[in-house]
Specification:
With about 350 residues, this protein is α+β, with helices and mostly antiparallel strands. The chain has nine helices and 13 strands. The longest helix has about 70 residues. Bound molecules: 2-acetamido-2-deoxy-beta-D-glucopyranose.
Length: about 350
């Protein structure tokens, strides 16, 4: 989930006060020379060129789809359904192929609460070891996995896409911190997969990092604990609580109101609050109104254009008629003149 991705940068902000779209803490920009600005621009262009995974947009919502399979923002229901199917298919595939993987970031936090995803989450996160990542790149890249739910109702295809930059374990320009994705080819939603590598075994042995600077000690990761997530066998790091507190602070394990949901002690579920339901309803209504207004305007514009076209057509018809009339009169006059001339003979 998004705040997982940015946790390092957001660590100083209060997690619960920040919205997902919260701007990062900004220092006053230093005045830049023309050359510096140009260099910065070039860097951005290079970065965009280097980026392997593409999303349809940079906003909170659009950043959670793969551009190739995106056909529009999905409903809450479709997202929920997709994420459940997606993680089940993913965990099955990894287990069947003897690939080690575990839950991470917001997905791990969801598991901590009730063994389920956080209902407001837009993407899911897992991690793998560097060795597994290498195997994914060598053997399983571009695998298409068909998934049929046990009741036979849900059928989906998932693409495992491995970033060619996996061989580079340093962050670099930051454009390729996601190592692989498990993508729903129906709507573009995905699971972000990141690999952990011991980048400095000589100076920092036993320290595992991802390209987004999350750090873990071997003893906090292993031995992994086998558990159940969304009804499927899954693994979590040994010191999951320590990892969660490091990433999200104590609050994430205590506060029971978050993102328009509140924790129900009895059912052990995150339930959408009435305020959130009302807010979403209002937003949906406003969207419909806006779309209707836009459609109406388009219709009126089209009608006006048609009217103008009709007027123009009439005008040009009139001009043509006038011209014809004039020509006729002129021809008439010419003929009568000729006749006059002939008559004088
Ligand atoms: C995975 O496959 C895609 C598509 O063929 C390719 O562009 C990419 O470089 C591959 N990744 C790796 C790690 O080889």
């Amino acid at each position: 989930m998004k705040f997982g991705r940015y946790a390092a940068t957001l660590a100083s902000l209060s997690l619960f006060a920040s919205t997902l779209a919260a701007p990062l803490v900004q220092k006053a920009p230093l005045p830049q020379t023309k050359e510096q600005k140009e260099a910065e621009r070039q860097k951005q262009i290079e970065r965009a060129k280097n980026k392997y995974f593409h999303e349809p947009g940079g906003t909170h919502q659009l950043g959670h789809y793969d551009a190739r399979y995106f056909h529009g923002v999905v409903s809450d229901e479709e997202r929920t359904d997709t994420q459940l199917t997606m993680i089940r298919a993913y965990l099955d595939f990894f287990r069947e192929n003897g690939l080690d993987t575990w839950l991470a970031h917001g997905t791990l936090l969801g598991w901590w609460w009730n063994g389920k995803r956080l209902p407001w989450d837009w993407d899911m996160d897992t991690q793998v070891s560097g060795a597994t990542l290498a195997r994914l790149g060598e053997k399983h890249n571009q695998t298409m996995t068909e998934y049929v739910s046990t009741d036979g109702v849900t059928k989906r295809k998932f693409l495992l896409d491995v970033n060619p930059w996996i061989w580079e374990r340093e962050r670099g320009d930051g454009a390729n911190i996601i190592d692989a994705r498990w993508i729903d080819t129906q709507n573009g939603l995905f699971i972000d997969i990141t690999g952990l590598s011991e980048t400095h075994p000589d100076t920092k042995p036993g320290v595992w990092v991802c390209k987004n600077y999350h750090r873990y000690n071997t003893a906090d990761l292993y031995p992994m604990r086998e558990t159940v997530f969304e009804g499927v066998v899954a693994k979590v790091p040994y010191a999951y609580d320590k990892i969660l507190v490091q990433e999200y602070k104590e609050k994430a394990l205590v506060v029971t109101d978050f993102e328009g949901h509140s924790w129900n002690m009895n059912s052990k579920e995150w339930i959408k609050t009435q305020a959130q339901i009302d807010k979403e309803k209002k937003e949906a209504e406003e969207k419909v109104k806006k779309e209707a207004a836009a459609a109406e305007k388009k219709k009126q514009d089209a009608e006006r254009k048609e009217l103008e076209k009709g007027k123009k057509r009439q005008e040009s018809q009139k001009k043509y008629d006038d011209d014809q009339q004039k020509k006729k009169v002129e021809a008439e006059q010419k003929r009568s003149k000729q006749e006059e001339g002939e008559g004088q003979d």
